[in-house]
Amino acid sequence: MPRWRRPRRARRDLTPPPPEEDPNFMTTTLEPPITRTTSTTPDVDLDLVQVSGVLELRDGHAVLHTSGYQPGPGDLSVPAGQVRSLGLRNGDHLTGVTRPTAKGKGGERRPALARVDAVNGLAPERACKRPEFGDLTPLHPQQQLRLETGPGVLSTRVIDLVAPIGKGQRGLIVAPPKTGKTVIMQQLAAALAQNHPEAHLMVVLVDERPEEVTDMRRSVRGEVLASTFDRPAREHIALAELAIERAKRLVELGQDVVVLLDSITRLARAYNTAAPASGRVLTGGIDAAALHKPKRFFGAARNIEDGGSLTIVATALVDTGSRMDDLIFEEFKSTGNMELRLDRRLADKRIFPAVDPKASGTRREELLLGPERTAATWTLRRVLNALDTQAATELLLDRLKQSPSNTDFLRKVVTSRPDAS
């Protein structure tokens, strides 16, 4: 009997049919089928996004901060090739374009700057020819930054009389606690913005209280850069260093820049905390190597011979009960060429501004004031030096309230010496 066999099924053709829309479609048994599609991806240039920010060069990396001077989610990386070819420097303000964030195996990575269109407002080829800040010739301040704004703002009027500030000044406001230094800094910033709009104003707050930062930002017409006390010391340092580098880049272009720092004492503390131990500890527990960089920050102030200036006015804390703070002030005392001293005894008696006119002063003030005003100021000093601190301050404030301007006040000083009693 023959064996039964299952009938063989016909082999199915697994080759897909050609697309109807393509009459020229061809395929073979040796190659997979090919399907032609039309790309809907727009041109690459349409994906570019214009950005701007401040360049920070740190630890071999170049980062463009697009939302201020501190790290943020919108930061961009800058290729090292662009930094070298364009001669970019720390603190440069760049304008360029970037592409949307690309995704890798580890998730999203920081987008890169695709092209640099402007460096500090100049074309990149022009920015390459700018001078180095260290090669600029420093001079004594020769042009006064007039701070007097009105008869009722006595703080700035007193500063113009007893410790005038010039373009390129390196000044210290020596302040014990609760003597009104924050108010003086705000009035100083307001006067600079009103009387000298050509100067670029930067207020740098280091290790400050958050409410003071908010108050300063609302009252100052200028850049306010702040790092609050709840942030680590390295963030204080990074902010201050990037701010001073930004100021240097502007001075290289011939601009006048004014930096108000509150305070140089807290900045030195931050450097002392973050610096590796050198084995040389000074009195008060401060490392000897920790003072070099804050001195370099303060020493950047100068008047430039060929145009431009960098003025730095910093507060120094004294009588805080900390030996470290006193040592920091002593180290910076000899480096400044202007000093405004606030007195705690005057503040306790609610005499504001609590300025000690006898201990305050400016080196080479005759270069700022001119011969006539210098003679009148020296006459005023002889009158004030004959009195004690409280009597001198009260006399000065009382006579200023009776005069509509400092010019009128000094005219009265020259014509008839005020009665010291």
UniProtKB/TrEMBL annotation:
SUPFAM superfamilies: Nucleic acid-binding proteins (SSF50249), P-loop containing nucleoside triphosphate hydrolases (SSF52540). The keyword RNA-binding applies. Its EC number is 3.6.4.-. One of its GO terms (molecular function) is helicase activity. InterPro entries: AAA+_ATPase, ATPase_F1/V1/A1_a/bsu_nucl-bd, NA-bd_OB-fold, P-loop_NTPase, Rho_factor_ATP-bd, Rho_RNA-bd, Term_rho. Keywords: ATP-binding, Helicase, Hydrolase, Nucleotide-binding, RNA-binding, Transcription, Transcription regulation, Transcription termination. Residues 27-41 have a biased composition (Low complexity). ATP binds at residues 166-171, 178-183, 209. Residues 1-11 have a biased composition (Basic residues). Residues 48-123 form the Rho RNA-BD domain. Belongs to the Rho family. Facilitates transcription termination by a mechanism that involves Rho binding to the nascent RNA, activation of Rho's RNA-dependent ATPase activity, and release of the mRNA from the DNA template. HAMAP family: Rho. This is Transcription termination factor Rho. It comes from Streptacidiphilus pinicola.
